[in-house]
Amino acid sequence: MTTNRPVALVTGASSGIGKETASALVAAGFDVVGTSRDTSRVTPLDGVTFLDLDVASDASATTAVQQVIERFGRIDVLVNNAGMGAIGAAEESSVAQAQDVFNVNVFGVMRMTKAVLPHMRAQGRGRIINVSSVVGFLPSPYMAVYAASKHAIEGYSESLDHEVRQHGVRALLVEPAYTSTGFEANSPRPDTPLQVYVDQRRAFDRMMVTAIKDGDHPAVVAKVIVAAATDPKPKLRYTAGPMAGRASTLRRLAPARVFDKQIRKLNRLAA
């Protein structure tokens, strides 16, 4: 089977940002394939074909991409949305726990990118949209491992974009701030907790609960992802939502001392 419509592959499409993105891409005229680790538990979405995918598995990534090619004959847009959080002080997370986060958030993106690039290069076009975060360019106390994974995605994506642009392919970043999803509730806690960090970690948890509750609707991020997928002259980075825009401006323009003070104030840390 082949199609004349553009085809988008969205990882982590069973809920949150991925679910809204899949639906928004359908509305924008795409044939959309969404993925989940267990599609038997996924609520069907109009216009979206679901495939099983574990981005932490080389074989699963390769198989999912091949299934899309066999069914639709092409992949025009890959949205690397699947990811996991991690909350706790840096000293409280074991290296093994950090490796689990990187295996999904960083190496998962790399697996999917390597799987789709040969097809995109052969067709002379394509966009790889990596869902990063404002903590890809901001520090995030008590989320150091997660922030490190998103900083890695920023560096990887920007470097990749320079490599593939000559082949008609772009690698782009979408950077949300707090988004009203299950992120906080689903983020694993530290596996080697320390008493010295308990009070501050609890304060951070309370802040996160409020921030996620009051955050942008996932549809706000989805709209930006569709823009990245369809802009005639795409930008490397797209902030998603007003808070993300303000954070980007603060990072670029604020003097170092002012920036540091604002980060500590935002995270309720002593001056």
TrEMBL record:
User: What is the recorded name of this protein?
Assistant: Oxidoreductase
Query: What superkingdom heads the lineage?
Result: Bacteria
Q: Which NCBIfam families match?
A: PRK06179.1 (NF004823)
User: Which InterPro entries does this chain map to?
Assistant: NAD(P)-bd_dom_sf, SDR_fam, SDR_oxidoreductase
Keyword annotations for this protein, in alphabetical order, are: Oxidoreductase
Q: Name one Pfam family in it.
A: adh_short
Q: What family does the entry list?
A: Belongs to the short-chain dehydrogenases/reductases (SDR) family.
